[in-house]
Structures are given as C-alpha cells and as structure tokens.
C-alpha cells in the first residue's frame, strides 16, 4: 500500500514538471492555483451517541486523494476520496472492514501554514476481505459531514511540490439501515494523515 502511494506521488510530480515548463498563461494560472493532496491515513471509527451497536469500533489504514482549486483570496474547493481498511472488534472479532468515502470540501487558507476545510461526505462501510461469507447486515451507507485541518511543514512557492503536510480530520456520520443492522446508526471518525501537497 505505501509503496503504491509513493509511486503515485512520484508519477504525479514527474507529470507536472514538463507541464510547468511548457505552460502558457492560462495553464500556468491553473498550475499555480491547483490544490492536489496525496496522503497515507490512519483512522479510528467508533459508535457515537448510538443505541444500535454502542460497542462498535474500527481502526484502519489506507490512503486519500484530494484535488481542487485554491484562489488568491485564500478560499477554494476540494473534491476527494479516502479508502481505509482494518479490523473491527465488535461485529465479528477480527473481521476486516472497508470504509470508503468521497467528499466535497470548502477550503479556507488561514495562514501560509494552516488550511481548514469543511464539507460533506458519502460512501460505504462494510465487512470485506474475509474468506467466509459476509453477513449482509454488516454493510451500511456513510452520510455525514467533516472538518479537516492541515498544517504545511515545508511551504514553498513551487508548482512541483508546494508542501509536506499533516492533516487532522473529524467526521460525524449517519449509517442508514434496518434496525437489525450490525453497524451503528451514527459514528465518529478521527483520522491523521501525512503526505504532500502538489
């Protein structure tokens, strides 16, 4: 997983360098305002204010990718996806779960070092990757909102590598489903990620 993530980051950097060299005024503006974040993620999802499965918790790892535009005013937007996989200790002991979401975010640049984003996410949480048949009750949609704070440790005026960054993210999600579902009706997810801004 990590080897593939670093390979993707290297490919993106190689792809952007020649584009920068031959860019005209319009494409140069696009490259200067492009926001592209690639990161490895570790997250913990736990039942929150829930009566259906109050003991649910999952710890997982994976990757995320966000892209969009950041304007000179410091406001921008991001579209992205995140994929996490890891065990849950409350539904089926040791059963791997997948947590895959897409999100749309409004981005605010607080300082040259700090960015805050808030928005909505949707996706799926499900029991996966096991050798046995999976109970259909261990699958639910993810619908909710999130807050994301990023700190750039190495900001620079460059179109190839703009920053090495750390992001902290909190999601509160609902999981619509039938009353006999094995998953909680609401959950809280806290995640940390480390990656690059291109």
Question: What tags apply to this protein structure?
Answer:
single chain; 15% helix; elongated; mainly beta; 2 helices; eight-stranded antiparallel beta barrel; 198 residues; Porin
Question: How would you describe what is shown here?
Answer:
The chain is mostly beta strands and 198 residues long. The protein has one domain: Porin, CATH 2.40.160. Helix content is 15%, strand content 54%. An 8-stranded antiparallel β-barrel has the order 1-2-3-4-5-6-7-8. A hairpin with a 4-residue loop joins strand 4 and strand 5. The chain is elongated and about 55 Å long.
Write the layout of secondary structure elements.
Blueprint: H1 2-21, H2 25-33, E1 34-47, E2 57-70, E3 75-87, E4 96-109, E5 114-127, E6 139-152, E7 163-174, E8 186-197
Antiparallel strand pairs: 1-2, 1-8, 2-3, 3-4, 4-5, 5-6, 6-7, 7-8
